[in-house]
Amino acid sequence: MKYRNWQIPYTAPQPPEALLRAGYSPLLAVLLALRGYADPVQARAFLSGGDQSAFDPMLLQDMDKAVARIRTAIERRENVAVFGDYDVDGITSTCVLTDYLRRQGVPVHPYIPDRIEEGYGLNMDAITNLQRTSDITLIITVDCGITAIDETNYALQRGIDMVITDHHECSGQAIPNAVAVVDPKRPGSQYPNSGLAGVGVAYKLLCALEGGSDRVLREYGDLVAIGTVADVMPLTGENRYLVAHNGSPSQPGTSVIREVQPVKDLSDYIQTEKSGFGRGGMLTKTTIARKVADEGITVIIANGKRDNILVDLLQQPDDTVCTRFIPSTEAVSSVKKWIAHSEGFAKGEIHINECATDILSSEKAASILPVGITHIEGEFEKDDIVRIMDFLGNQVGVGKANCDSAQAREAMGKHGKKPVVHYDYLYIE
Fold this sequence. Notes:
Layout: H1 17-21, H2 26-34, H3 40-48, H4 63-76, E1 80-83, H5 88-103, E2 108-111, H6 124-134, E3 138-141, H7 149-157, E4 161-165, E5 180-182, H8 198-210, H9 214-230, H10 237-244, E6 259-260, H11 282-294, E7 299-302, H12 309-315, E8 322-325, H13 334-340, E9 348-352, H14 354-360, E10 373-377, E11 385-389, E12 395-400, H15 405-411, E13 426-428
Parallel strand pairs: 1-2, 1-3, 3-4, 4-5, 6-8, 9-11
Antiparallel strand pairs: 7-8, 9-10, 11-12, 12-13
């Protein structure tokens, strides 16, 4: 066994008091301290992955040459091949560059070598076939190519230009005789982050072509994150920023939405297509927050990881960054208000499927219909309070049963039956 002997410290490391006081759990505090982040300010900066860690793509050697050659290919509508790799990093790199060039109107031919038959990296047979079948005049490599000296010379002999983007180590000091060799690990590189994944280098190429990162991150941030994590790159500095990035809230020109008025359409405030809501269920959070505000209750969404956030919201509400959902001034059903605070009296649980869960979190006024119920737990009578559970087992609301548990089980999964919980007696959390 390769790792037979484990090196275990004689005494367990103690979590720094400063991190514990800042609200970090003991386990997270220990892990942060072991990585050199014992101070809350340092820990917060490390975990947040701020955009101060993002570097100018033109700092990468030969990036200017790569951009010039690719822009020429775009203008001339040349046949271009994107030569990738068969692992996650190589596939995401290929997808990112292929999609971008196709949007520019370039005839692109992505190529992933067969793992068994061809192995890793460029090979002369593939170059020959690409030229023969697609009349390729430019090959751009992603996640490979830094050691392809002979293959690059072969391509040049056939009249094919090469732009190499890679993140692997060079074999010695020699590099391929390509139009451009973009690799943060190439000899003489001054780029501050040598730990970019292959997809990270491809991302930097797109940023250089675009002249900025806003659109590139918005369109391809998810693929960049997947490739970076899958290739086990260090999640520090620029890499952490790329993986942690949720849309573009930190970009110039954007700001936090301070108030949401009691309206029926959240698109008045934010675009729901693309990645406007970011990751982590933000669309669900904002939808539910708006619903609660419609019941006459003020809702605030703020950064719960920030020190003293609750105190600041109470003492300095105007100076604390948050989004406040303004409560509706219309009359609110007293029954719904009572139901909202009656969870402690719940007699049973109604589990619903994914479709029903989506409907409840939408803008529609919806009841709990038997067709969307998958499971009934506990025994209850008509007019008893019941919990509403989503398809993952999470509680999403409470309501007053319109029938007893036996009748609910009999109707479960059937169409055309009366609601088990009517909308007028349903409170969504």
